[in-house]
Specification:
α4 runs antiparallel to α6, α4 crosses α8 and α6 (about 310-320) runs antiparallel to α10. This protein has 11 helices and 16 strands. Mean pLDDT is about 90; it is low at about 1-5. The strands form 5 sheets. A 4-stranded antiparallel β-sheet has the order 1-14-3-11, with no helix packed on it. The longest helix is centred in the last third of the chain and has 60 residues, at about 405-460. It is α+β, with helices and mostly antiparallel strands. This is Flagellar hook-associated protein 2. Homopentamer.
Length: about 475
């Protein structure tokens, strides 16, 4: 155990003196660290607002997407549990009826299995396709579950494997990975290890024409496709058979049209993203700083309080969202029912600069002439639409040379300067601490020598004979 002999000669607690002097110096470091916390939070607050603005930009760009405004067909099934449908493209308008009497199924063969002490191989192939041959290694003493796992792990194998237990007997049941009569397969057991047996159990066998589906389209003759996914019975429509139907299922295809609801949701999303910017920014510029803050939490508060740059950004963003445009089918978002909340609706939202959407007016405008709504956002010729104007303004804030981006870079430089300052202060403290310890040690050594000499002189004087 270390024993401190600080101040033995002088009687002073030199370690305590040095510690107190260093505490004074540490206050300088703490002051810089507090400023660092504030600047880091300033950047964090700006970054959060930047992310909100970028979300507005994304929402505005979404409204320029050609896919959003492209008329498309839809197809529906009167019973999706039996028949599922989707448009492939260019489908005929109208309806069809489909009766499903049987689903297409996989070929199947089952075997009694007994494991042996020697490794071996199993080979599978579709009966009419030699190129599908796959050989699976079977380990010595492999259980039925081990064999099934080895088969299922090989994605090129033409079969799946399952284990069925019948009393003490384990059975392996193989099913083809495709459906229909041509999905039958062979199992070659000639290379199994000695002692391993695979004896076919015909009770599990499923082969032949009944593996094909049985359907009637539009009341016609029965057809027997080998798959449950059909792309040729209704041109332009993919039909997926999912279950046997007790009566014909109707498949209906519409003429090409835009998705009015999807467009209305995208426009509403733009307004919601804008309102989110307002909410987040207002919260930052109204949060006051904590006087004489000492905790990290208090130091982080109010870093954008009363920030004129953010106040200006909100004002200009609102002007951009509510401005009138010319040369397009509509004159602005107000024509879509987007504007400042009406009196009595939400006075606080109106004061903060938020916008509201009249959904009835919006949907009516889209239904009346969606091309005008598209022009309003996407623009026409050399005339920029609302999406272009919004993204252009946001670029002045969050782009590579944007105002907010620049302020965040300034914060980074400031924090970097603080880090360098803290490093220098710590180095100076370490050097000063070493200097003080050396000085006090020298002082103690001198005092100790002086006291030793004084004690010797005193003893010498005491030993002189009395006069």
């Amino acid at each position: 155990m270390a024993i401190s002999l600080s101040g033995m000669a002088s009687g002073l607690d030199t370690e305590s003196i040095i510690s107190q002097l260093m505490a004074i110096e540490q206050n300088k470091v703490t002051a810089v660290q507090k400023r660092q916390v504030a600047v880091n939070q300033h950047k964090t607050d700006l970054s959060a607002i930047k992310a909100k603005l970028d979300a507005v930009k994304t929402a505005a760009n979404d409204l320029q997407s050609a896919t959003l405004w492209k008329p498309t067909q839809t197809t529906t099934s009167s019973d999706p549990t039996k028949i599922d449908v989707s448009v492939l493209g260019g489908a005929g308008i109208g309806g069809h009826s489909i009766q499903v009497d049987r689903l297409a199924s996989s070929a199947q063969h089952g075997f009694d299995y007994a494991k042996g002490a020697n490794a071996g191989k199993l080979t599978f192939a579709y009966s009419n396709d030699a190129a599908s041959t796959v050989t699976i290694d079977i380990a010595a003493n492999a259980s039925a579950a081990d064999v099934a796992a080895a088969v299922n792990a090989n994605e090129k194998a033409p079969v799946y494997a399952a284990v069925v237990k019948d009393g003490a007997t384990e059975k392996l049941v193989f099913s083809s990975r495709k459906t229909g009569a041509n999905a039958d397969f062979t199992v070659d057991t000639s290379q199994l290890g000695a002692g391993t047996t695979l004896t076919e159990d015909t009770s599990y066998q499923r082969t032949g024409p009944t593996l094909n589906a049985a359907i009637k389209v539009n009341g016609g003759a029965e057809t027997n496709p080998e798959s449950n996914i059909l792309e040729n019975i209704i041109p332009g429509v993919r039909v997926t058979l999912k279950g046997v139907s007790t009566s014909p299922v109707t498949v209906s295809t519409t003429q090409p049209a835009i998705d009015n609801d999807a467009i209305a949701k995208k426009i509403t999303a733009l307004v919601d993203a804008y309102n989110s910017v307002v909410t987040a920014t207002r919260a930052e510029i109204t949060e006051k700083r904590v006087p004489t803050a000492t905790t990290t939490s208090d130091l982080q508060k109010g870093q954008l309080f009363g920030d004129s740059g953010m106040t200006s950004m909100l004002r200009q963003l609102k002007q951009t969202m509510t401005q009138a445009v010319s040369g397009l089918g509509l004159t602005g978002l107000a024509d879509l029912g987007i504007g400042v909340p009406k009196a009595g609706a939400s006075a606080e939202d109106a004061r903060s600069g938020k916008l509201t959407v009249d959904q009835d007016k919006l949907k009516a405008a889209i239904a009346s002439d969606y091309t005008k709504v598209r022009e309003l956002f996407a623009g026409k010729g050399a005339t920029k639409g609302m999406s272009g104007l919004i993204t252009e303004y946001i670029g002045t804030q969050t782009g590579t040379n944007g105002i907010i981006t620049g302020r965040m870079k300034t914060d980074d430089e400031t924090v970097k300067g603080f880090n360098e300052q803290i490093t220098k202060l710590n180095a100076r403290m370490e050097k000063e601490s070493a200097r003080l310890k050396a000085q006090f040690a020298a002082m103690e050594s001198a005092l100790n020598a002086s006291q030793t000499q004084q004690a010797w002189l005193t003893s010498q004087i005491g030993s002189l004979p009395s006069l």
